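Could you join me in thinking about how sequence relates to backbone shape in a protein? Label the sequence line and the structure token line clearly, so we can match residues to local backbone shapes. Once you have written the record down, we can walk along the chain together.
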Amino acid sequence: MDTLTPKQIVAKLDNYIIGQTDAKKAVAIALYNRYRRMQVPKKLQQEITPKNLMMIGPTGVGKTEIARRLAKIVNAPFVKVEATKFTEVGYVGRDVESMVRDLVSMAVSMVEKEKFDEIRPEVRRDVDKKLVKLLAPGVKKEQKQNPNDFMSMLNSMQNGGQNLGSIFGNNEDTIDEDPDKNAEVTDDIRNQRLSVKEQLDKGLLEDEEVTIKVEESKKVGPMDDQMGQMGVDMSGMMDSLMPKKTITRTLPVKEARELLIQQESQKRVDHDEIYQKAIEKTQNKGIIFIDEFDKIAAGDKKTSGEVSREGVQ
């Protein structure tokens, strides 16, 4: 976006949209003005309000496509909403603030993906090392049961429950668990792993199945959606209080690798930094496309003091 002039933006839009020259020029100028706003001191930025645009035309002329392509060109978060589904708080439908929350959520996903791509080579190397150990496991050692588990639990409860996870086995199933933790690696296994690593690097083991332990994905229920509309992350609050559960899955190597890379990347990035950059990205580049304005217009109908059921008030 830093190097694109309005003419260059229009030229890129011409690759996807036929005609609509005036509309493309208008959005290109509006986008460039937003970039110019970002170049002034932050105190002055608050005095310069980005303009909203209204595109009027029948279905199929390219209104949505212009906005969608514009967002892709400048790598901006973009959401499309229908005006009839949004209303003021306390009336029918979702509240209008959820548009911004959806936009921020989109920005978080975009920034998160950028961070994941930056660290992917390093994470993949570590994941491949773990896959080699799983494909050529060591000899399992006999595990002795601790006779003092009950006493350990009582002591842990007195200390605030900090070690309860290890007593009930939660720490044994974490994604960071070393496959060699309770195994003995002999010289034959080391030689076997060298061969496995060579085949893995050549892509010869992509369809081989491997058993991994992964964190159970959280389920979003109706309560989460309702609390989300009030700005409360109920799932996040519960996740921070409850120990993370793991499940065992048997997958082909290519699928297991991507799953492990995804979860390992989640642990290595700074989520506070991601959220901050996502908010800045939303404020400076975010695009909300509100469709179906014509369906909420009252027209020539007489209005009364009753609550409208047609959409935005």
